[in-house]
Structure formats: structure tokens, C-alpha cells
């Protein structure tokens, strides 16, 4: 289903004002309520509830296979791309269920963008066209001047503009891995998402590129709600405001053991399993 230009162009989200004219909660808050997930009859998530506040970075941490990526993909309706995949529960974006009947799939995916583990720009497409690729897919029509401004804005926000402004017509595939990942971030930003999901975005990158992406994440957090899966505990501490620790005991579906402000999760975890995990005693 395509988004009509008229609906997709209303991408600027005005400040929410309550009945007394005061500015209300920031838009972009995401909340999962009692989310369970299955692949066929294999249940992989059990009743996961988590608030991911607007304007903050939430890190999902936990050992391999406990359902972090599945949970992330449920947040923007990518889970349903797997034929055998099912789920129950609710995902609320600004209080509205993204799975509600009548809600368009493309609307959820535009408002909740995703950056993957391996940078996936269109390799033969120019840097410029990579950034604007999402606009075409969502049916947004813009003029050339508007597109030029958008490309500069998104590449600047992704921390890539200065490195590529003189070679916007070169292919995206010619960039380094770290630059390609920042190009993918710029591409995600072009459709003005309220939330950006990042699934181990630095795991394929060298330490310098990783730090550059981490800076970008912190800079973006002011305007986009970010949810990031990471196996790197130092990274979780550097970039996130809040953490959720996922765990799946042998043969059981994954769930959240503990969540809260990142400082507290690392310095004073409530659950011994969290303490053991964040201190590298397992996982
Ligand atoms: N497409 C799929 N089909 C069937 N089972 C799947 C699929 N994707 C994931 N799973 C299963 O769901 C469970 C959770 O996997 P998931 O990738 O969400 O965990 P994770 O915590 O993100 O792991 P990792 O940290 O290794 O990426 C695992 O048992 C996995 O084998």
C-alpha cells in the first residue's frame, strides 16, 4: 500500500498542546504492552512491556537468542514479514496502537525507521539518491530545491555531510563501512521518523567509526526517540539513557528481567542476573 503524497507530506510534527495551551508530552514516545511473539509454534517472547520515552535512547541488552531483535522488529511491524511469525500485545506510538486495524503498515514503518547491523545502502545508487530513496518508496513528491536541502540536512545530522558534499553523485557503495552506516542513518532520517530503531548498528564497524556513530546517536536523540540493540556494554553506557535487560532461560521465551535508567542498571542493578550480565559474568 502506498502513502499518498498529501498524507505523507505532513511530516512536521507540531508541538502537542494540552487544553490549557501548555506544551504536553513530546511526540515520539513508544510503549510495548504485554508483547509476546512466536515463530510457528516456537514462543520467543513472553509478555514484554517497556516504555521507551520520547527524546531518549533506550538500549536493549542481553545474551544472544533472548529475543532483542525480534522485539525491535515488532516495534515497526517488520516481524510480520516472516511468514510463520505471529504476536500478541500492543505497541503504542504516542498512545496509538501501530497494529490497530486500519493503521497502514507503511505509516508505521515511516514513523518508526530502522538501521540494521550491516550497512545496506543501495550500492550502485548515488549518495544523493540513497538519501532520498525512502521518499520515493513512501510516495512523497518533492521539488529539486527541497530535495537538495533535505539531503544536506540529513547528511549533516548523520555526521556525513562534510565528508561527502563534494561527491554526492558517487555511488553509495564506494564509501567506507562506517560512512555507509551513516548514509543509512541519513536515508532513515529523510522520511522524518519519530523513532529510529538500531539493531547492533556498530557491530560491523571499526572502533573509530563506532565512536562516530555513537556521537551521531547522541546528537539525534534530541529529536528522534532511539531504541538500540547492543552487545557492547560500554556502548550501552555511552549512548543510552535507559536500558532493558532481556533474558531467556533454557527452553523458555525471552522476557525483560529489569529495566531502568542506564546508570542504575550498571551501578546498582536490582536483580543478580542483571549484575552478572553487565559485569560480563555470562552472555
Ligand atoms: N526468522 C526466524 N525464524 C524462526 N526463528 C527465529 C527467526 N528469527 C529469530 N528466531 C528465533 O527467535 C529467538 C530470538 O531471536 P532474536 O534474533 O530475536 O534474539 P536476539 O536476542 O536478538 O539474538 P542476537 O543477540 O544473537 O541477535 C531465537 O530462538 C531465534 O532462533
TrEMBL record:
One Pfam family recorded for the sequence: ABC_tran
GO MF terms, alphabetically ordered: ATP binding
Assigned keywords, A-Z: ATP-binding, Nucleotide-binding, Translocase, Transport
Lineage: superkingdom: Bacteria
Gene3D superfamilies: P-loop containing nucleotide triphosphate hydrolases
PROSITE patterns, alphabetized: ABC_TRANSPORTER_1, ABC_TRANSPORTER_2
Ranges of residues in domain ABC transporter: 30-273
Protein's name in the database: Phosphate ABC transporter ATP-binding protein
Species the sequence originates in: Streptacidiphilus cavernicola
Amino acid at each position: 500500500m502506498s502513502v499518498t503524497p498529501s498524507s505523507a507530506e505532513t511530516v512536521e510534527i507540531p508541538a502537542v498542546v494540552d487544553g490549557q495551551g501548555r506544551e504536553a508530552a513530546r511526540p515520539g514516545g513508544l510503549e510495548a504492552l504485554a508483547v509476546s511473539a512466536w515463530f510457528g509454534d516456537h514462543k520467543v517472547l513472553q509478555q514484554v512491556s517497556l516504555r521507551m520515552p520520547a527524546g531518549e535512547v533506550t538500549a536493549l541488552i542481553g545474551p544472544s537468542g533472548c529475543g532483542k531483535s525480534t522485539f525491535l522488529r515488532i516495534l515497526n511491524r517488520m516481524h510480520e514479514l516472516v511468514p510463520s511469525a505471529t504476536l500478541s500485545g500492543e505497541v503504542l506510538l504516542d498512545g496509538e496502537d501501530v497494529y490497530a486495524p486500519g493503521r497502514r503498515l507503511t505509516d508505521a514503518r515511516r514513523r518508526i525507521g530502522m538501521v540494521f547491523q550491516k550497512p545496506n545502502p543501495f550500492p550502485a545508487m548515488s549518495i544523493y539518491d540513497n538519501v532520498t530513496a525512502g521518499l520515493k518508496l513512501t510516495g512523497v513528491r518533492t521539488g529539486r530545491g527541497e530535495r537538495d536541502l533535505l539531503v544536506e540536512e540529513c547528511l549533516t545530522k548523520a555526521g556525513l555531510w562534510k565528508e561527502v558534499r563534494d561527491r554526492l553523485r558517487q555511488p553509495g557503495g564506494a564509501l567506507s563501512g562506517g560512512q555507509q552506516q551513516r548514509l543509512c542513518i541519513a536515508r532513515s532520517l529523510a522520511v522524518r521518523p519519530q523513532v529510529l530503531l538500531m539493531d547492533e548498528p556498530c557491530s560491523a564497524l571499526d572502533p573509530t567509526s563506532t565512536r562516530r556513530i555513537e556521537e551521531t546517536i547522541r546528537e539525534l536523540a534530541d529529536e528522534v526517540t532511539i531504541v538500540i540493540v547492543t552487545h557492547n556494554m560500554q556502548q550501552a553506557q555511552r549512548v543510552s539513557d535507559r536500558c532493558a535487560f532481556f533474558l531467556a532461560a533454557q527452553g523458555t521465551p525471552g522476557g525483560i528481567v529489569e529495566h531502568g535508567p542506564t546508570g542504575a542498571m550498571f551501578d546498582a542493578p536490582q536483580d543478580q542476573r542483571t549484575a552478572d550480565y553487565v559485569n560480563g559474568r555470562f552472555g
